[in-house]
Each structure stands twice: as C-alpha cells, then as structure tokens.
Amino acid sequence: MPLCPLLLLALGLRLTGTLNSNDPNVCTFWESFTTTTKESHLRPFSLLPAESCHRPWEDPHTCAQPTVVYRTVYRQVVKMDSRPRLQCCRGYYESRGACVPLCAQECVHGRCVAPNQCQC
Q1: 119 and 43 in contact (C-beta within 8 Å)?
Q2: Would you say residue 14 lies in a domain?
Q3: Which residue in 14, 27, 62, 92 has the most C-beta neighbors within 10 A?
Q4: Running along the chain, 120 residues long, what does each successive block of 10 average in pLDDT?
Q5: In Å, what is the CA distance from 117 to each residue of 4, 91, 99, 114?
C-alpha cells in the first residue's frame, strides 16, 4: 500500500478517535455492567457401597455405609461489575474525539470559548 493512503488512514483514525483522560474537559464516570462467568464449586455426592447389606437381621452398623465424595462442578454466574468511562464534562460535547464548549445561543460574530460564553 502506498504511503499516502496509510498516512490519510492514520490521520482519519485520530480525527475520529476516542476521548483521552488527559485531554481538557474530559471527565470520568463509573459505569455498571453485568458479566457472566463460569464458577467452580464442590458438590457432595454419595457413593453407595459395592456390597449391600443382605442380612437384615444383623445390626445395620455392620453394613457398609455410603461414602461422601466431593466433585468439582461448574455453574454460570451473573455478576455486577463497574468500569471507568470517559465523557465530556458538563457544558461540553464531543466532536471528533475532543470536548468542545456548548453555547445555548449561537455565537453570531464570534466563537464559543466556554460553556455559554461567546468571544468576538
């Protein structure tokens, strides 16, 4: 690919880039979201004896008792989590990856330099 299209592509990516926390008028807020994960836990299982007690007249304590074993099983768990997100601070809006001031009234003979503040 020639150099010129690559340069234009790189510039285009920066122009439509995302906000940077170091840029002016960019604020951070925490966003909650849910996520599904696989969680392991131990579940008890009874192992029956290989030989059952065939003599009911004997004391039942002489018969083999079931053995409890624990096996790892998995389940899906939905958890709440949070992550930092960037947005323009109050009075600013995002334009081409930067936060620019918002003036409610149009600045007819000047430009908007701060929220609701025009400068000639």
Answers
A1: no
A2: no
A3: 92
A4: 42 58 94 96 88 64 80 96 95 94 92 93
A5: 40, 10, 15, 5
| Residue 102 falls inside a structural domain | yes
* Tokens coding 68: 């409890």
Q: How far apart are the first and last CA of the chain?
A: 46
Asked if residue 7 is part of any domain, the answer here is no
DSSP assignment string, 52-108 = ----TTS-GGGSPPPEEEEEEEEEEEEEEEEEEEEEEPTTEEEETTEEEE--SS--T
Residue range(s) defining the domain that contains residue 67:
19-52+63-119
Q: pLDDT value at position 117?
A: 93
Is 9 part of any domain? no
Place of tokens 């908007």: 112
Residue 28, C-beta contacts closer than 8 angstroms, at least 6 positions apart: 21, 84, 85, 86
